[in-house]
Amino acid sequence: MLERVLPYAKTLLSSVIKEGDVAVDATAGNGHDTVFLAELVGDSGFVYAFDIQQQAVDATKDRLKKHGLEKRVKVILDGHEHLSKYIQEEIAGAIFNLGYLPGGSHDIITKGATTISAIQQLLSRLKIGGLIVLVVYPGHEGGKEERDAVIEYVSQLPQKYVHVLRYEFINQKNDPPFLIALEKMKKLPDSE
User: Fold this and answer.
1) Percentage of the chain exceeding pLDDT 70
2) Which of 20, 73, 159, 166 could bridge to 47 as Cys pair (CB 3.0-4.6 Å)?
3) Cβ neighbours of 161 (radius 10 Å)
4) What is the 3-state secondary structure (H, E, C) of the chain?
5) Strand partners, 51
6) 23-55 in b/e burial notation, b at 16+ Cβ within 10 A?
7) Which residues 6+ apart lie within 8 Å of 122 measured at CB?
8) What confidence tens digit (pLDDT) does each residue in 30-60 have?
9) CA Rg, the chain, in Å?
């Protein structure tokens, strides 16, 4: 059976994030991925979760508290393009859900330039064998521009250093989400 995009994102991250690791939720949203990552890293690991909306930060903190996981996570009200200000250690994995906050304003969206900046910063901190997973939603205003910018950027990453996977269902209508996964194979010469 083919896994849908969101479950497949979790399958991929589960394969690389272990107890004691550091992980990043680059788009905290309503906190579902943040809770998932916090469960993966265990008591000895840590998660950084970013969002630019107070509504998302509050929802994520509430969800973490309900699950008793708030001590494992730092929820940061800032754009993921600033993650270098907060994260110095090596990370095992990261996830992005691009687009807008479900239930929030459709005018506040992720953008290609800031997403690419965050990917670059994450790649320099990602351990060998670590993954960055992006769930791309191109069906909203501005979504196709971000999709195109991200695809152009990741397509040019040297395969010797980063393997890039695109996972999608090609017969679904209305711009279905798809997944891009970046696996770091070797230390990148120009980013570290």
Assistant:
1) 98
2) 73
3) 18
4) CCCCHHHHHHHHHHHHCCCCCEEEECCCCCCHHHHHHHHHHCCCCEEEEEECCHHHHHHHHHHHHHCCCHHHEEEEECCHHHHHHCCCCCEEEEEEECCECCCCCCCCECCHHHHHHHHHHHHHHEEEEEEEEEEECCCCCCHHHHHHHHHHHHHCCCCCCEEEEEECCCCCCCCCCEEEEEEECCCCCCCC
5) 77
6) bbbbbbbbbbbbbbbbebbeeebbbbbbbbbee
7) 24, 26, 83, 91, 94, 132
8) 999 999 999 999 999 999 999 999 999 999 9
9) 15
Q: Amino acid letter at 121?
A: Q
Asked whether residue 190 carries a pLDDT value surpassing 80, the answer given is: no
Question: Does the pTM of the predicted model rise above 0.90?
Answer: yes
